[in-house]
Amino acid sequence: MSNRSRGPRYFVEGGAVLNGAVRVSGAKNHVLAAMCASLLTDEDLILTNVPDISDVDSLGELLVSLGATVERPEAGKLRLNARDVRVFEAPTDLISENRASFQVMGPLVARHGFAASAPPGGDVIGQRPIDVHLSGFEAMGATVSRDGERYVARAPGGGLVGTRVFMDYPSVSGTQNVMMAATLARGRTTIVNAATEPEVQALCLLLNAMGARISGIGSQLLDVEGVPSLHGATARIMPDRIEAGTFAIAAAMTGGDVRIHDAPLDVMDALFTKLRAAGARIEVGEGVLRVSCGGHLRAVSFQALPYPGLATDLHAPMASLLTQAAGVSIIHERVFDNRMLYVGELRKMGAEIVSTGSSAIVSGPTVLHGATVRALDVRAGAAVMLAALVAQGRTVIEEIGHLDRGYEQLDSKLRALGVTVERT
Ligand code: EPU
Question: Does the beta carbon of 257 sit less than 6 angstroms from any atom of ligand 1?
């Protein structure tokens, strides 16, 4: 493969000790769902603290292709309006860009009675079915059929009808999709075994600000009292707990001292517990998280779980840290069935890590060395970036488009903390 076809790359000099301050950007998985929520109303939805990441751009393009307007009046702000949406079918090339885009289905079928889409794209981190989305729509009276590669959902004449929906798995985007559809259904929908992730909670609050009537927020039992229409709102996107966690891990594993501003401190307990167990110092102040590590890291084992367990999106970055910890750490991935793409890349850098199905065993500490590695998904990319920080010599990271999907200005944020990193 030529360099050209590999796209931009990061060149990272190892041996950095991260010091200083960094500000966390808005959360990818909140903003993407919020953008889909704009389809539920004729009025403007204004979002602030919007991260400049490529997933926002590709979902914005998708909304425009449906007839919505998506404007960025200033950096960090989006104004979305779905008054003129006349197309109810998501174009396959855009739906395949990211997984969140399937969340246009719920709003479209609830408001317009029809929605069609190919299965969504996103990282290849497991089978990622969408059965709970579809069975939720069906429970509310929609008929869902398959037309070639497209799923087609049609609401009955009088619209969707509230009901009791059991989620076979507490899927994050499944809960969000069904919940958005339920806001405009007739009567009450109760979602049993709902996902409780902070981004789901944030979407509930946004929908309520738009006039929805959702209660049970943060619990596994969500009640949605349907309303005839929703109105516009202005909402601030919550800070990204995964980005905050990535910087916290980076600070600890480089033996640095970093103040992380705007970290969503209330939703990061699982990570704090594991980082402390590994020997890092975590101090929580007014809106600021300070992470430092003066001594040696110790092995810790963990499971990646639905919230409030340790986030699957921090699994790979934590594995990178554990290559620097003394002892054997055992990792169990309990959310996705293919989150181990990073393992081979870390091995190229000298890590002693093996994976068996959904588990990984890391022995440390190992001296990592610079190598040419790939960012195979957003979080596998974060893992190799973190490994590059402590490696001896220079690491070249290819396919960094994956990092651009979820991390705003990763290179300049790292540079401000003392890392020598270039993007070509
Ligand atoms: N699942 C089902 N049936 C379904 C849907 C999901 O069995 O209908 C299973 C999946 O197979 C998987 C598990 O449920 O094993 C979790 O999937 P979920 O649907 O909860 O994940 P998602 O909504 O596709 C979101 C985030 C992910 C994050 C997960 C888990 C967005 C756009 N993506 O994905 O974020 O890892 O929740 O917290 O919100 C990332 O940011 O790197 C990322 C992948």
Answer: no
* Region(s) of the chain under CATH 3.65.10.10: 4-24+239-423, 28-236
In which region does residue 269 sit, left (phi positive, over 0), alpha (psi from -120 to 50) or beta (all else)?
Answer: alpha
Predicted confidence at residue 122, as pLDDT, reads 55
Q: Is 272 in the pocket of ligand 1 (CB under 6 A)?
A: no
User: H/E/C letters for each residue in 329-363?
Assistant: EEEEECCCCCCCHHHHHHHHCCCEEEEECCEEEEE
- Is a pLDDT exceeding 70 seen at residue 30? yes
Tell me, in angstroms, the distance from the centre of ligand 1 to residue 100's CA.
Answer: 9
Q: Which atom of ligand 1 is nearest to the CA of 307?
A: 38
Whether the CB of 313 sits within 6 Å of ligand 1 = yes
Ligand 1 nearest-atom number relative to CA 170? 20
CATH of domain 28-236: 3.65.10.10
pTM: 0.96
pLDDT at 305: 98
Q: Residue with the nearest Cα to atom 13 of ligand 1?
A: 335
The CATH code for residues 4-24+239-423 is 3.65.10.10
Q: Read off the pLDDT of residues 83-94 as tens digits, 9 standing for 90 and up.
A: 999 999 999 888
